Amino acid sequence: MEMIAELANSLANVAWPALVGYVVLSNRKVVSQLLETAVARVSRGDEIKVGLITIGQSVGLLKVPPQAGLLTDDHVALVHRSWRVPHRDSEFGRPMHQIHVILFGTPEALQRVDHVLYHLTDAYPDPVRRGGALASNFELKELANGYSLIRAEVHVRGQSEPVRLSRLIDLTDQSSPLRGSYQNMSS
């Protein structure tokens, strides 16, 4: 009986790799397409997880843009802070907050930006605003009295289409100040 169990175990050890080999060989085109897709996704920074193995990463630091390539939302992002400004409540008849929005990215990415146009909700008298200069990370400072979605068009020198970004503006009573580029994060 023990010899039969060993034989069955040996056959199982050979059968699984043979079965996998057969499936891969008989589906070469599909396996090839899957591998090409996986390589492309990992190359652009996506994360692929199979069991305990993780390849690539879709979340993390913004990338340095290629010198000759397009600037995309892989290279820049909107960041915001908010805080209460009670001394403005009586002027508007409701609790008011200051919002501060900046364009965040590596110095290489930010230096390629010409300007940023922010699109606020229609509740603002002038809903389209141009952000500040590069030195301020193209900042926008405004008053707000509720959550809203802000959209931005990041106009890049030498690039015909802007990078489109959005951010939900939530309001907090206090928050830490914003710092600009990665260069400033360590200070």
State the gist of this model.
By secondary structure, the protein is α+β, with helices and mostly antiparallel strands. It has helices at residues 2-26, 28-43, 89-92, 107-110, 182-185; strands spanning 47-50, 53-56, 76-84, 97-105, 113-119, 128-130, 140-144, 148-156, 163-169.
What does it look like?
It is a single chain. The strands form three sheets. Strands 6-5-8-9 form a four-stranded antiparallel beta sheet, with no helix packed on it. Strands 3-4-7 form a three-stranded antiparallel beta sheet. Strands 1-2 form a two-stranded antiparallel ribbon. It has two domains: 2-56, no CATH class; 76-182, Immunoglobulin-like, CATH 2.60.40.1970. The longest helix is centred in the first third of the chain and has 25 residues, at 2-26. The chain has helices spanning 2-26, 28-43, 89-92, 107-110, 182-185; strands at 47-50, 53-56, 76-84, 97-105, 113-119, 128-130, 140-144, 148-156, 163-169. It has 187 residues and is an alpha+beta fold.
Largest sheet properties: 4 strands, antiparallel
Please name the CATH architecture of the largest domain.
Sandwich
The N- to C-terminal Cα distance equals 72 Å
CATH class of the largest domain: Mainly Beta
- The shape, in one word, is elongated
Q: How many domains?
A: 2
Radius of gyration: 26 Å
Question: How large is the share of residues in beta strands?
Answer: 25-35%
Strand order of the largest sheet: 6-5-8-9
Q: CATH fold name of the largest domain, please?
A: Immunoglobulin-like
Query: What low-confidence regions span 5 or more consecutive residues with pLDDT below 50?
Result: 182-187
Given helix and strand content, the structural type is alpha+beta
Please name the fourth-level CATH homologous superfamily of the largest domain.
YEATS domain
SSE arrangement, N to C: HHEEEHEHEEEEEH
Oligomerization category of the chains in this entry: single chain
The helical percent reads 25-40%
Averaged pLDDT, please?
Answer: 83
Structure summary, number of beta strands: 9
Q: Total number of helical segments?
A: 5
